[in-house]
Amino acid sequence: MTITSDSDAAKRYGKKQNRPVALVVDDENTNRTFLRTFLEADGYSVIEAGNGVEAIQAFQESPPDIIFMDVIMPIMDGYEAVTQIQKLAEAQFIPILFLTALTDENALAKCIEVGGHDFLTKPVSPIVLKAKVRSMERIRKLHLEVFRLYGQMKMDQEMAETVFNGVVIADNIKLDCIKTILKPAEQFSGDVLLTAHAPSSDIHILLGDFTGHGLAAALGALPASEVFRAMTAKGFSPHQIVAGINKKLFSLLPTGMFFAIQFISISSNLEYVNAINCGMPDILLLSSETGAIKQRISSNSLPLGISLDIDFHSLFVRSKISHGDRILLVSDGVTEARNADNTYFGKERFETILQNTKPGESAVESIAKALADFCQDAPQDDDISLAEIPCIPDVLPDWAENDADDEDFSASPSTSKAKPPSTTHGNISVDPLEFSITLPGGRLSNSDPIPLLINHIQEMEGLQKHRRLLFTLLTELYINALDHGLLQLDSSMKSSPEGFSAYFSEREKRLAALNHGFIKINIQTHNTVQGGKMIIRVEDSGKGFNLKLINNADTHNVEKLCGRGIHLLNSLCESVRYEEPGNRVEVIYSWNDEL
Amino acid sequence: MSVMAKESEDQKQVTINVSGRFDFSCHQEFSGAYKQYPRGERLFVVDLAETEYMDSSSMGMLLQLREHASHEGSVVLNNANESVKEILQIAQFDKLFTIA
Prior knowledge:
Chain A folds into 3 domains: about 140 residues, Rossmann fold (3-Layer(aba) Sandwich), CATH 3.40.50; about 220 residues, 4-Layer Sandwich (Phosphatase 2c, domain 1), CATH 3.60.40.10; about 190 residues, Histidine kinase-like ATPase, C-terminal domain (Heat Shock Protein 90, 2-Layer Sandwich), CATH 3.30.565. Helices cover about 40% and strands about 20% of the residues of chain A. Chain A contains 20 helices and 20 strands. In chain A, the strands form 4 sheets. A 5-stranded parallel sheet of chain A has the order 2-1-3-4-5, sandwiched between helices. A 5-stranded antiparallel sheet of chain A has the order 6-15-14-11-12, with helices on one face. Chain A is elongated. Chain B has one domain: STAS domain (Transcription Regulator spoIIAA, 2-Layer Sandwich). In chain B, strands 1, 2, 3, 4, 5 and 6 form a 6-stranded mixed sheet that branches. In chain B, about 30% of the residues lie in helices and about 30% in strands. By secondary structure, chain B is α/β, with parallel strands linked by helices. In chain B, helix 3 links the parallel strand 5 and strand 6. Chain B: Pfam families: STAS (PF01740). Chain B: GO terms for molecular function: anti-sigma factor antagonist activity. Chain B: This is STAS domain-containing protein. Chain B: InterPro entries: STAS_dom, STAS_dom_sf.
């Protein structure tokens, strides 16, 4: 008889030299010899065992590549041996073929039950045996391949998770007052929650949902979060940030992948929230008093990454908030969660639970509980994310409260009066640095020059630790010049909630139509021995306003009459001086380095 | 879930029926259904009468179909039930597709 070349079986096993090992278990010597002859001819090397106990011993000494098992044997039968071998084998797959004289159907079924992969009844034809061996080899190969892929997937996921956590999650602000549930359907979530404080002390929060879930969905979160953080840190406004993310994702994501988002920006004075909803369920504003839904902000835009032709600026909704109101962000995984009966959790159930949540109770917690009761052990189809953000000072950065009276900045008037900075008494460096920019009215509707100015100042002068205050100062001066100078808006309109939104819609209208006038910003910085000072002059082409209001700024009417802007400027600067007719202002901001 | 495509006799229009859950598991079938027709030539009608549910992956597939169809108004979404309509509405897909 022609012996199949040794390398054949080895090749089938992917081995270079060693023959694959077959363990033959039978109490009959003749049966073992028959199998040995057959298997050796097929390229195997053979180990024999006369009963179950010997088989287990042989297995423990060195696990074979395939096992041929008799059923009825002395000491320990094949059923018991296979049961134990399967326990020892754990995750590795070793094909086990039962060879038995039994013909009883139940006995044959039991072969599979205890962990065998197939059975043959004796006497065995060499042709059938060979076919079965091939079949076993094929299954083994598939098994190994799946095992390898699974291992690789796990490894990739773990590595990706490390990166994801480092880039996307780790830079979020740690805020205990924001309650969240983030329940990914797989190891990786296509949902992502991003939080960051802007230099203006506003807080930006984005809850987004990428198409699909798992690793591919999570990939898009990396560029999205980078843009979100970089632009927030530089002081870009919410609509510019959303446009930035949209542009980035449009260029990166393949067709068919997109990013639905809810984005909110809570103002640092806790007066309003600026929000946009691009393809997500409603953003809900819950009343602090009743817990009822006070306002909903529905989707009014395509998700991000689909089209560049979206005017995000006009899609933002500005709402007045009261202290203690809560904002609920939610992904569609909540309403689309299914239970074992294939019923959806649904919007109705979701909102009923919200209505039944008493003020003071956490909406997120009651929904989490209801969801768990509803879904029980049903498998989760989609990522579930919920975030409940209270409109309270805790969400604002630490610096927001401290800045105004932070003496380290030596900016408050009281400090400068107590020990006047030497800047006013000479010691001014020889070469002040000066630059100015003129912004024509027609170009102001779609631009925000403040982040650029700040970056410019910083590139030239450093001043890292003054960034936030300078940002606040410049924004305040710029907005005053724009709103009251060029746009001729009356800030007393803002005192009522209706007036508040009327003010902003009027502002939008006038800004869009603005095609004349200018705002000129001039900045001069001086180095001094102790630190430095910056003189900021802002001039607008408006008519100016009644300077008597400013003269009253020291009286207690200040908040009512002039809004908080001028009060804020006074508290931050060494001096604030308006010039007739009120369209020019000069402020001096100074600092001491050694403090 | 099952996907069926049928071409009109004049070879100008292809109707794709999706029944059951229209989600990620339909991807192969759905893209197979339209890729057999050349790019940019047919009007595609996706009949959603028997679609009980859509998720974001299926919306992604509609965007891929839109790219394949490649000119304005060449993908029509038909007969969507209320909940599917709501999902399309939330994503503002009426800006990209003709919803009938």
